[in-house]
Amino acid sequence: MTKRFRESTLDQMYLLPPSLQDWLPDGHLARFVAELCEELKLDRFLAKHEERDGRGQAAYHPVLLVRLLVYGYCVGKRSSRQIEKATHDDVGFRYLSANQHPDHTTIAEFRRQHIAELSELFAQVLVLCRKAGLVKLGAIAVDGTKMLANASPEETARYMQLCQWEQRLEEKIKAMLEEAERVDREEDAAEKRDGIQRDLPEEMATTKQRLEKIRQVKQELEEETREKADKVRAERQASGGKHRNEAAKKRHQRATKPIEKINPQGNLVDPDSKLLKDPVTGGFIQAFNAQVAVDAQTQIIVAAAVTNELNDREQLQPMAKLIEQSIEGKPEVLLADAGYFANEPMEELEKNGWKLTVNPDAARKRSQAPANAAKSEIAARMRKRIRDEVEGPIYQLRKQTVEPVFGQIKEARGIRRFLLRGFEKVRAEWQLICLTHNALKLYRNAPAMFERAAKAA
Fold first, then answer.
1. For a Cys-Cys bond, which of 156, 237, 243, 292 suits 267, CB 3.0-4.6 Å?
2. Which distant-in-sequence residues (6+ apart) come within 8 Å of 268 by Cβ?
3. pTM (2 decimals)?
4. What gap in Å lies between CA 132 and CA 145, rounded to an integer?
5. CA nearest to 95, candidates 166, 51, 37
6. Is 302 helix (H, G, I), strand (E, B) or coil?
7. pLDDT (tens digit, 9 = 90+) per residue, 49-60?
8. Environment class of 423 (CB within 10 Å of its CB; exposed 0-12, middle 13-18, buried 19+)
9. Is there a contact between 370 and 245 (Cβ–Cβ < 8 Å)?
């Protein structure tokens, strides 16, 4: 008897067209993302398209492109070329694109034009997490991680070095222009009489672009230095013309020096990024300091921000403000590691009704806080809370709350570097990364909220 096999020909014809709903099993992440995007308000995306005159080919629907980007960030495929390829190769992407294939230019341009609107979806996803009971408003832990910038550290230079580069390029351009004029006089006299103008040589055009970039970075460093000086002067004026403590005196002395003495660093590719110390390797990387505030029970990110400061000492107040805006209130306690310990910001937060637990001691060992910080009254209160039988175990939740979040973003999804450049775009991309972290938590912990996709299958 001959063994019978199922049909395996690649030329199999279908009596009826196949349905997209048959492509994925129930409960697949792509189905969840499709249903999630239906719940989000995308009016601002649509409004931008309404502003256009309507000529040309029909555009891809914003909902389709939002689905692709959200799913791409969920699974760690963020490159527009990766997403374009995945709409052919990956069933999840093909399902979300409705079997269409927008090219990478379209995807990249959509992200560029709508990056602000994409970041605003963070708040909408957080609302859904709250409805699902995933935001407990008990203990919230704050921490930061170094995320690589889309820039090379080799393009970072000190202010005085930029001045030297600027002078050399100016001299080089001057010499190139003189040589061009000489050649024009000798060989192109007729063309010059006819008013014909030649394009700049490629080398000169490239040199001019680099010179303009150097001048831009220099100007930004000068503005940044001036802003820091104005800030410390305002602090001194607010304290009656005197320094509040030795640390404030040192900040004032450092910030009010001439820029040539401070000699700050700037990067020619992404001037907003900085050379920051990598806590893992101990070396310096071109990066941003990405901040999150995480619910200690559910690992939902309730607030996210980006800075280029080397340490976290000045980030507790800004993060507390973001938390209060996001959850419309204060948590029971705010937890942070020793890098956040600073007397004055913490005292001000406590006056405003915040309960804090921040370790004051490790910062002194790493020289990330003033030497007298560990001797203050607030330091004594923090130690007491950490040793308390009830509050101590709550503080221990901090590390096991935030570190897994960074691990899920960096290790599980492979997101270690920002694709975009500049503060505004990097902040928006970090919000997009964090909203997809929350979406994955929602997918795994509250599937009952999104049952319509499964029912429709």
1. 156
2. 155, 156, 157, 210, 213, 214, 217
3. 0.82
4. 28
5. 37
6. strand
7. 776 655 657 788
8. middle
9. yes
